[in-house]
Design brief:
Elements: H1 7-25, H2 28-34, H3 50-77, H4 88-110, H5 149-155, H6 159-164, H7 169-193, H8 198-218, H9 224-228
Length: 229
């Protein structure tokens, strides 16, 4: 159980109440999303923007899926290329981390009551605003919009950080920065369309990180003796 005392697990747990306090007690979400809302037409003008839809949404999603399949393909090749065999466990770990983190966010989103900004009455939609810990008003269907699913694809790239941190710390940190940047950029592009609040994307990153940290503790990408060496 000592491996579950890793600061990669405990620090996010300590920060979670602070994140909740930030987004539930301040108007940060509304202040940021309001920049992309046009009150004169009661809509988000960039909702159907071709670049945001085709490149930043569909395109980046396909890119991340392609990376995950490439890693899994490399794992399969380790059975054909003997020189790749030492990397087999690590490649499988990274592929499983990318898939598992995004899947967990998708499952949480499916069971969520929170609505997307464009569904809220104050932004031209139909649903009343309610916070993360508020009860859904009677007669209002669940929004299923939290955490941010699209952002989770970018954050899933953090799997490379955990997968490589015991062999190449510098490369791992570069992948960590890339994963954080990709998740926020993908998430922000959805904010511009009115699809998510900032909090949806930040919590998406938190969920993916926690999944990867627990997976790292329970099933490390390298055997303990090898990692220690």
């Amino acid at each position: 159980m000592t491996r579950f005392r890793d600061p990669h697990i405990w620090w996010p747990l300590v920060l979670a109440p602070l994140l909740a306090l930030l987004f539930e007690s301040t108007p940060l979400d509304r202040a940021l999303i309001g920049y992309y809302y046009d009150a004169s037409v009661h809509a988000f003008p960039l909702r159907d923007d071709a670049f945001l839809q085709n490149v930043m949404h569909s395109g980046t999603k396909l890119l991340v899926i392609g990376i995950a399949f490439a890693v899994f393909g490399a794992f399969l090749l380790t059975y054909l290329l003997p020189q790749w065999e030492p990397h087999r466990r690590r490649l499988l770990w990274i592929a499983a981390g990318m898939a598992g983190g995004s899947l967990l966010v998708s499952l949480l989103k499916h069971g969520s009551a929170l609505h997307c900004p464009w569904d809220l009455a104050e932004y031209g939609g139909y649903a009343p605003f309610h916070g993360l810990f508020d009860m859904l008003p009677g007669g209002v269907a669940a929004g299923r919009c939290f955490p941010g699913g699209h952002a989770s694809g970018g954050f899933a790239l953090m799997a490379f950080y955990f997968g490589l941190r015991d062999t190449s710390a510098r490369t791992a940190r570069l992948f960590l920065a890339a994963g954080l940047a990709a998740g926020m950029i993908m998430g922000w592009s959805q904010m511009m369309r009115g699809a998510h609040f900032l909090s949806h994307n930040v919590w998406s990153g938190w969920v993916v990180w926690m999944y990867l940290a627990v997976q790292y503790a329970a099933f490390p990408p390298a055997r303990r003796a090898v990692a220690a060496a």
